[in-house]
Specification:
Elements (H helix, E strand, L loop, with lengths): L1 H7 L4 H6 L3 H8 L4 H19 L11 H16 L11 H6 L1 H26 L7 H17 L5 H22 L13 H19 L14 H18 L5 H4 L6 H4 L5 E4 L1 H13 L1 H4 L6 H9 L8 H6 L4 E4 L12 H20 L5 H6 L4 H25 L3 H5 L13 H17 L10 H64 L10 H12 L7 E5 H6 L3 E4 L10 E9 L2 E8 L2 E2 L6 E4 H9 L4 E4 L2 E4 H8 L1
Antiparallel strand pairs: 1-2, 3-5, 4-10, 5-6, 6-7, 6-8, 9-10
Helix pairs in contact: 1-8, 4-7, 5-7, 5-27, 7-10, 7-11, 8-9, 9-10, 9-11, 10-11, 18-22
Protein name: Ras-GAP domain-containing protein
Pfam family, one: RasGAP_C
Organism: Austropuccinia psidii MF-1
């Protein structure tokens, strides 16, 4: 109903697509429950594991310019020579490069194959999808059909299909570890590939072909059209579900038979805020003078105002509110009989704990002795102690346990004789209303009680299964934490070892031609006692410029580079320092420019071509080659 009411205020389909609705939040929440995560894991874990463990290590980059620049990066890093390929190109110019074109085609082929696997995985387990999600999708689709009768069913179906994918499925594709789809660490390459697959699936869910703006992706349109129709047919099967009342076996007796009443946790401040909102719009929310909500709000009056910051803070803590049917209007003429039936079953259960019989009638006719009274007192005491132990174990309040299941909360003050008399009184009242029969020794209510106990056992088993799932999830999270910590340690150790190995190679004494600038530079450092542990090298800016390493210097033209010296030193593993001199005078008043090898590698992985260091602009790939 809330879906249809929210859609009533929508003017256009585009407004719906861009809008923020309450039912959209339900789709988001569906990815966070234990059962729903289990479904997502069964749906996607296999194909995502294949992406993570792919030995081909193909980057699913679909932008020709990025592919082109990756080719340049690899060439310059491998050779140490500036590439002859022009850096600034458009998509067509990038694809004119044969190596780029070959890689790009391979990327598209791999992307199509991988997307097809994801699509098959998503559409192959329709019956396992949570009923609530399918029901919400159906109601949104029906609501849109009523609101926009001129739109075709397929166009409306694609709108809802895109919402289901974007809000529910896509988060598990791009961040599978967040939704427990996988337990392993996802490296940057696999994450990027998952993002590319997600973009493709998003395009398929919308059913929009690539246009001339993305002409380089037009070759995928034939596949996209086919996949879009497959996805659309899957959506129609997805929304083919029964009514919620049928699926959950809901009837008029449900409220009387459930053991645990719904509980919400809310702060007094939130209650007062809700109270104020209802009071403000009371004429719209409850216009009728006999409306129960209107009567309650008018009786309560205005919401309390905050007197002080301390009081406001005290009211911010949550309290538990349990749903009780105290003010309900009994429209069902049998409601009082049903309530009496439920109450009597609870009395009988308490009575039979102390004095069972062959039949219920035999139990009623049996006399009450002192032993029965003593046993009843012990039963009540044990019940109270059990609830106290549960309270200590899970932190709930005693009243929480008093309201759960078949407890003795409302008969503890009675003696066993009084309990038995009250139970018999209720049974006779039910017999008078033709709900029980003495001829079968009131077996009907015992059968009903046995069925309740059976259902409670099933719920207990369900809770035990859920607890097992949560325990396993927690164990997996802890294992994942340990794995990530080990990976982080191994990563840092690997970087440190690599840096040390590289510096060890660079620290071997090399022959330096006497009386060269490098020779004078090293002698000067030795005299001053500040020779770096892993070496120091002096280059002329002109030489670095000619090698393509130096791209530009602020306030200096290439004609002045002969007078500029750039000194690269390393006294700590993986940490490099730049010093710039003009006619042997320092150019920078600040400390030396410092950067780490790890930062350089990160920037290279991000696709950056150049590096800005104060007044220097350097070719990142060639700088890495020089340092190595």
């Amino acid at each position: 109903r809330s879906i249809h009411e929210e859609l009533a205020g929508v003017i256009s389909l585009s407004e719906f697509i861009m809008g923020k609705f309450t039912f959209v939040n339900l789709l988001i929440q569906y990815g966070r429950g234990t059962k729903e995560r289990k479904y997502l894991k069964s749906l996607l874990s296999s194909v995502i594991h294949d992406v993570i463990n792919d030995e081909k290590k193909i980057v699913l980059e679909t932008d020709p310019i990025r592919v082109y620049r990756a080719v340049i990066n690899e060439e310059e890093t491998r050779t140490g020579i500036q590439s002859t390929r022009p850096l600034d190109v458009d998509h067509n110019e990038a694809l004119a490069d044969q190596e780029t074109l070959s890689r790009f085609i391979k990327h598209l082929q791999y992307l199509r194959a991988l997307t097809d696997r994801f699509l098959y995985a998503m559409t192959d387990q329709t019956l396992k999808m949570p009923f609530g999600l399918r029901y919400i999708a159906r109601e949104i689709f029906r609501g849109l059909k009523v609101k926009f009768p001129s739109e075709t069913e397929d166009s409306l179906a694609r709108v809802v299909l895109h919402m289901i994918y974007y809000r529910y499925l896509q988060p598990a594709v791009v961040a599978p570890e967040t939704y427990d789809v996988v337990d392993s660490v996802i490296d940057p390459l696999a994450r990027k590939n998952l993002a590319e697959v997600s973009k493709m699936l998003n395009q398929i869910s919308v059913g929009r072909l690539f246009s001339d703006e993305n002409s380089y992706l037009v070759p995928l349109n034939e596949y996209l059209l086919h996949a879009s129709n497959v996805f659309l047919n899957w959506f129609y099967s997805l929304i083919d579900v029964e009514e919620a009342e049928v699926h959950f076996a809901m009837d008029e007796y449900l409220d009387h038979t459930i053991s645990n009443k719904p509980t919400i946790y809310i702060s007094p401040n939130e209650i007062y805020s809700t109270h104020s909102l209802i009071m403000k719009d009371l004429d719209r929310i409850a216009p009728g003078s006999e409306d129960p909500l209107r009567m309650i709000v008018l009786e309560l009056g205005s919401a309390p105002s905050t007197a002080s910051a301390e009081l406001d803070q005290a009211r911010a803590s949550e309290i538990a509110l349990r749903l009780e049917n105290k003010l309900a209007i009994q429209q069902d003429p049998e409601a009082d009989v049903k309530a009496l039936w439920v109450k009597t079953k609870r009395y009988i259960l308490a009575m039979l704990k102390v004095q069972p019989g062959i039949t219920l009638l035999d139990a009623f006719l049996a006399p009450v002795t002192e032993e029965h009274e003593d046993l009843w007192s012990r039963t009540v005491f044990e019940e109270i102690e059990l609830e106290k132990s549960r309270t200590r174990a899970d932190g709930a309040t005693l009243s929480d346990h008093n309201h759960s299941g078949h407890t003795l909360e409302d008969v503890r003050s009675l003696t066993f004789q009084e309990l038995k008399a009250r139970t018999l009184e209720n049974v006779l009242a039910l017999e008078k209303r033709n709900k029980l029969c003495r001829d079968d020794n009131y077996q009907g209510i015992l059968d009903s009680l046995a069925n309740d106990i059976l259902q409670r056992n099933r719920r207990r088993i369900r809770r035990r299964i859920d607890m097992s799932v949560l325990t396993n999830t927690l164990a997996n999270l802890k294992e994942k934490q340990r794995y990530l910590e080990e990976q982080e340690t191994q990563y840092h150790n690997y970087i440190a070892d690599s840096m040390a190995s590289m510096q060890k190679k660079g620290s071997k004494k090399r022959f330096v031609m006497p009386f060269t600038p490098q020779w004078h530079h090293l002698r000067s450092l030795e005299r001053e006692g500040r020779k770096p542990k892993f070496g120091s090298y002096r280059y002329s800016a002109q030489r670095l410029y000619e090698k393509g390493i130096l791209l530009s210097m602020n306030q200096f033209s290439p004609k002045q580079f002969e007078k500029v010296s750039i000194i690269i030193s390393c006294d700590e593993v993986g940490i490099f320092k730049f010093e710039i001199k003009f006619n042997n005078e320092k150019l920078l008043n600040n400390d030396l420019i410092e950067f780490s090898m790890e930062d350089l590698l990160d920037q290279q992985f991000s696709g950056k071509q150049s590096l800005n260091l104060e007044i220097l602009k350097l070719n990142l790939n060639l700088l890495l080659h020089l340092i190595k």
